């Protein structure tokens, strides 16, 4: 524990020494940070590269239990479908890994909203039996997470359950320890963000879920996470200042473009901007090809356009065509393009290229956490620029860190 905390402190000091915008926040006194309401959020964003290695080590420690849940090497039948469940950010975390897991596990995999499992279970639940439900939950206390698990334990007794959570005392982590159909992967307490918005919890839960595609390749998984740490460190140190400066501009609208696993990252980055601006800056998420079919009408002179540029050559060709179309039509105030080998002819005068060496080698199926990191920085500094408090950006408490409890209805209540 002491070694982990020392590594965090060393990393924090290093980033602060390299990025003036980060130093301005991290090096302020505790009273100043508390008064301005950003102390938790900046710490939790900056700590991510260090916490990722701890999460990877934990995931490998859980490898045998995860193999059993999938039905590998034990007496249980192999699963025939996998659902990644969550609400809000937790759902988007599932979207960041679902396409890759479907390809690697060769079974149907879908990110399913926890609310859909409560309101429309018959259409939300994948048909393959037995199934594995992966519940992704920072606190593990949201009513839909626990309600969905309860309903499936009773109505789908063959379903197995994996809880990926940052809170060892939450309802998911602590409430089902005696049920052999369940297993909890609890991440480091540092990832249980104290800020209202999810930052380090999000990326760590994504990487924990991503380990399901590497169960036969644990060393490769840890190497992949190690490479992501390097890319994230480069992004923070090389581009943290420019992202902070871009974010301080006055935007009425922010558009996020992504594809595949990175579409989930676009959704999360969009949500961060919406949450941290208390909805003052409107946001939208689209695929590159989908933008042409109507949504492009929403892009005006007040628009920040965030482009997550694929490594895959085919996908990138379509993405570059769309970006050039935006340039030709002179749409948007400025662009932020995240990727590697970004063609400089895509950049207009005020645009920012977040060039991330090594991101293409890691692969589009693994780099959602890098995209989200860029989105977190944009949202944080935009929040401060418009005079809000990143740790609790919702005036009047309209939204809260954990969704307030509500009644979970049972389908049996409505049977004649």
Molecular structure report:
This protein has two domains: 26-216, Rossmann fold (3-Layer(aba) Sandwich), CATH 3.40.50; 221-396, 3-Layer(aba) Sandwich (Rossmann fold), CATH 3.40.50. By secondary structure, the protein is α/β, with parallel strands linked by helices. The strands form two sheets. A five-stranded parallel beta sheet has the order 2-1-3-4-5, sandwiched between helices. Strands 7-6-8-9-10 form a five-stranded parallel beta sheet. The N and C termini lie far apart (57 Å). 48% of the residues lie in helices and 13% in strands.
List the helices and strands and how they pair.
Layout: H1 2-18, H2 20-26, H3 30-36, H4 39-46, H5 48-61, H6 63-70, E1 81-86, H7 89-105, E2 109-113, H8 114-119, H9 121-124, E3 131-137, H10 143-155, E4 160-165, H11 171-175, E5 182-186, H12 200-210, H13 218-247, E6 253-257, H14 261-276, E7 282-286, E8 303-308, H15 313-328, E9 334-339, E10 352-355, H16 359-362, H17 368-385
Parallel strand pairs: 1-2, 1-3, 3-4, 4-5, 6-7, 6-8, 8-9, 9-10
Helix pairs in contact: 1-2, 5-12, 5-13, 7-12, 7-14, 12-17, 13-17, 14-17
